[in-house]
């Protein structure tokens, strides 16, 4: 996997992934930025949520669960001193569908956290990671 990052100005950077997608990262105005894009650590959280959500949806689909929508809400805490690593991360999954079994969702989240999601397994080296979920029946 490769990526490229180019400094634009101030604390603004343009990243390009190996697959050819671009993203702007910037800091807050009080830190010298212009708030033109997300902070790098916000992207770490979003990337991790994407990684684990991909796993959860894939596992639920293989289990023949009728999932119509899914999102994950993330809350995190970081260390107060440098390096300001994540110390706590909580993932709250909301799964919407028809007749989705709680045990299937629990299993999918567990498999992602313990076996498949490289990003969350890596972050677990510094952060306490917790998960919960709710299932909403689609109208």
UniProtKB/TrEMBL annotation:
A Pfam family hit: OsmC
Name of the molecule in the record: Osmotically inducible protein C
Organism: Crenobacter luteus
Lineage: Bacteria, Pseudomonadati, Pseudomonadota, Betaproteobacteria, Neisseriales
């Amino acid at each position: 996997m490769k990526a490229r990052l180019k400094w634009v100005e101030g604390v603004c950077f343009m990243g390009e992934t190996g697959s050819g997608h671009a993203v702007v990262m910037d800091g807050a105005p009080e830190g010298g930025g212009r708030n033109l894009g997300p902070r790098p650590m916000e992207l770490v959280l979003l990337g991790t949520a994407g990684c684990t959500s991909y796993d959860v949806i894939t596992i639920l689909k293989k289990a023949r669960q009728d999932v119509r929508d899914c999102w994950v809400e993330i809350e995190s805490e970081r260390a107060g001193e440098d390096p300001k690593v994540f110390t706590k991360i909580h993932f709250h999954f909301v799964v919407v569908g028809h007749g989705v079994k709680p045990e299937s969702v629990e299993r999918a989240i567990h498999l992602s956290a313990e076996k498949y999601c490289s990003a969350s397994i890596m972050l677990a080296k510094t952060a306490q990671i917790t998960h919960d979920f709710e299932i909403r029946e689609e109208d």
